[in-house]
Automatic annotation (TrEMBL):
GO terms for molecular function: DNA binding; DNA-binding transcription factor activity; pyridoxal phosphate binding; transaminase activity. It comes from the Bacteria. The keyword NAD does not apply. It comes from Actinoplanes philippinensis. This is DNA-binding transcriptional regulator, MocR family, contains an aminotransferase domain.
Length: 448
């Protein structure tokens, strides 16, 4: 197979290698399920750097032509319909109507604030204005600006965090642009960047967020036009960036004055870490997204976006040709929830409950020798010996988890599962027993 691949490559750039392998797959010379040679073998045979082959492999993965299976290797994908090629579809495929579905990454409905009082207070028609009214309620914009982690030049409200990322990406990215993201990253974001034709480069993380030296190296290797990151309660790892790390990253980014930073602060008020943003140091180059789905309810469909005028004005102008604005009625509900003492207390209680649930499950897992992280937010990132075997073992015990592979731009040192720890209100020891069994084959059940 190595000879077949190297013989087909005429252009030894990453794009040329990807195109040659894609032609072999389309023609049937590389059949579905075939295991590809390692990156180093291909690179050595072609006389190119492993980085070049890795980029070619990434492009093929994003196109759905090949897939990684952790340490098992890289394989030619079978024929899939377009939707099934999405990373996001791989997450939803983990849901199989099991008694305990921890694959979803959604907040606990029992911990969300009650919308009924807010709807009663603001549902009197006062929001029916002109189509030409400001897209954001003035009182809501004033409150959001007070809470923003840095003074944004422009601020608007859109229909959720992913809508914000979609609109920002559409305004600043062009086909073939290199984009830096965290590795691991949120699968729908990776799907979005793929749909725009961007070349995605994963940057390693540690317990405080992006690794500064790794970011510096990525900036040397690629002329990236944007960096997408999650400053708090990173999905899936739970990592939150502190002020010291933000300052270090901002210093590294001084060497890339053309690059735009896009921050997705999706956890919002349920994050235990304080708000932090690279925009405090690079406000003219940072777009910050503040989400309310996890804290106040996914069906509010609202997120705020703040940043430099050249990005936000382009976003707002393009939006005028579509929805124009996000529901001012829902904006009124959000304003009420952000200022009503009972709703504020409810969200604070949810934040504390999620922290307690994460801590209880993490402590139980560590007592069983399981490696996992869950520093913030509602998710837990758990290392497993084999992703597929672990998911099957969990399903046998009535538990569904999200596979780790869709989150990874490039494979990590081990396979992982994402567990929505925020949905686990009790029975942490019992669940930890089940998760430990799935983590390591043939592990014995813990005796009380």
């Amino acid at each position: 197979m190595l000879t077949l691949i190297t013989g087909a490559v005429q252009d030894r750039s990453a794009r040329g290698i990807a195109a040659a392998v894609s032609r072999l797959i389309t023609s049937g010379h590389l059949p579905a399920g075939a295991r590809l040679p390692t990156v180093r073998l291909v690179a050595g045979s072609l006389g190119v750097s492993p980085t070049t082959v890795s980029e070619a492999w990434r492009n093929l993965i994003l196109a759905g032509a090949i897939q990684t299976r952790g340490r098992s290797g890289t394989f030619v994908s079978g024929p899939l319909p377009p939707r099934a090629r999405l990373r996001y579809a791989q997450l939803s495929g983990a849901r199989v109507d099991l008694p305990q579905d921890l694959s979803t990454g959604v907040p606990d409905p029992e911990l969300l604030p009650d919308l009924a009082p807010a709807l009663r207070r603001i549902g009197d028609g006062r929001w029916a204005g002109s189509y030409l009214d400001a897209p954001v309620l003035p009182d809501l914009e004033a409150l959001l600006r007070e809470r923003w982690p840095y003074p944004p030049e422009r601020l608007t409200v859109v229909d959720g965090a992913m809508d914000a990322l979609d609109r920002v990406a559409g305004a600043v990215l062009r086909y073939g642009d290199h984009v830096l993201v965290e590795n691991p990253a949120f699968p729908p974001l990776l799907d979005l960047l793929q749909a725009l034709g961007a070349t995605v480069v994963g940057v390693p993380m540690d317990s405080a967020g992006l690794v500064p030296d790794a970011l510096r190296q990525a900036l040397r290797d690629y002329r990236a036009v944007a960096l997408f990151l999650q400053p708090r309660a990173h999905n899936p790892t739970g990592t939150s960036m502190d002020e010291s790390r933000a300052a270090l990253l901002a210093n590294v980014l001084l060497d890339a004055p053309h690059l735009l930073v896009v921050e997705d602060d999706h956890a919002g008020a349920i994050a235990t870490a304080p708000p932090v943003s690279i925009g405090r140091y690079l406000p003219e180059r940072t777009v910050h997204v503040s989400g309310f789905s996890k804290s106040h309810g996914p069906d509010l469909r609202l997120a705020a976006v703040g940043g430099p005028a050249h990005v936000l004005d382009a976003l707002a102008d393009r939006r005028l040709l579509g929805p124009g604005w996000s529901s001012r009625l829902l904006q009124g509900v959000l304003l009420d929830l952000l200022t009503d003492p009972q709703a504020v207390a409810r969200v604070a209680a949810a934040r504390d409950a999620y922290a307690a649930r994460r801590s209880a499950l993490l402590t139980a897992l560590r007592a069983r020798g399981v490696t996992a992280t869950a520093a913030d937010g509602i998710n837990l990132w758990m290392a497993v010996s084999d992703q597929q075997n672990a998911m099957v073992a969990l399903a046998a015990h009535g538990v569904a988890a999200a596979p780790g592979a869709p989150f990874c731009v490039t494979p990590l040192d081990s396979d992982h599962l994402r567990i929505t720890a925020g949905l686990v209100a009790g029975g942490h020891d019992e669940l930890a027993d089940v998760l430990a069994i799935a983590t390591v084959p043939n592990i014995r059940r813990r005796t009380p």
